[in-house]
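Email to the structure team, subject: Glycosyl-hydrolase family 116 N-terminal domain-containing protein model.

Hi all, the expression group asked for a predicted structure before they design truncation constructs. Nothing fancy, just the tokens so they can compare against earlier work. One-line instruction: predict Glycosyl-hydrolase family 116 N-terminal domain-containing protein, return tokens.
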Amino acid sequence: EVWKDLLEDGRLNSAPGPSPPTAKGKKTAAAVAAGCSVPPRSRETLEFCLSWDMPNIRFGAGQREHHR
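Reply from the structure team: attached below.
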């Protein structure tokens, strides 16, 4: 879905509001896209910040779950 959306017009579109939770056992992914107009022989800077919340974390064989 992400690639199809990006190929249409070079932009990522998403519905407003929060995303639905990922179902147990399903994998999830994310994408970030930013754009601007850059005149010839010049440069621009785009700055963004990513953050996420991982309240339940499993390491190794997944035998122990850590909570924040």
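The chain is about 10% helix and 10% strand. The radius of gyration is 18 Å. Ping us if the truncation boundaries need rechecking.
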